[in-house]
Amino acid sequence: MSPAPFPYKLVATDLDGTLLRSDDTVSERTREALTAATAAGAVHIIVTGRGVPWTRRVLDALDYRGIAVCGQGAQVYDAGAHRLLTSVTLDRQLAGLALSKLEAEVGPLALAASRDGVDGDVLFGPGYRVHEGLPAVYLEDTAAVWAAPLNKLYIQHPELDDDDLVSVARQTVGSLVDIVMAGPGIVEILPLGLTKATGLSLAARRLGVKAAETIAFGDMPNDIPMFGWAAHGVAMANAHAELKAVADEVTTSNEEDGIAVVLERLLGAA
Length: 270
Prior knowledge:
270 residues; 14 strands; 24% strand; 8-stranded mixed beta sheet; alpha/beta
């Protein structure tokens, strides 16, 4: 008896902690599983919190030519053509107000910002800890952050951990902006209402695919809206507890080919 057809038309994968291993590579097993899924009629789309400038080099190294959703849904990017299809920017006046209100509540924050555009710089000020290997431009005077359109702000607190910072930020300024945790040490201020689901739905519409035909993989709380949009959400074993709580299933970790484990089962190859 031949295996049942692959049940999804769209496979949406987060990047860090999900598709990528800790060394920023994709295992051969996962590559083969994604290739088999696309051969079975599905489209693979990467959905990442990274802005295009921090995503492009990874996509190029993977020889990824399709559409990618970047910047927490702010940017829909054609990786093959190296061009933005859509981009949403952060209201700088509103963001500045939110930042002032939050600092009045918790004290000074270390700040970074992602400028809009395919070649937009990520700027960071004193005290902000940038993840190793990611290109960024240091600013002694963070007032320069506000000089050009932004997709997002990054904030860090000298004492509060990520979960506590997200909690107090949402309580203090959640009516002005969205606050998400995208990874360890990565708490972001976004336009209100913007999520990965926003960008994924736009990209899916371009591809002629519906939410009911989508399986999504992720590892952090910023993937929760994407799981809510997709028909089936799969959390990695290394995922944050908040995401596991809303996932339809939990697979093995990104280091143990968690995406491949699920796709192989669905393809009848496991």
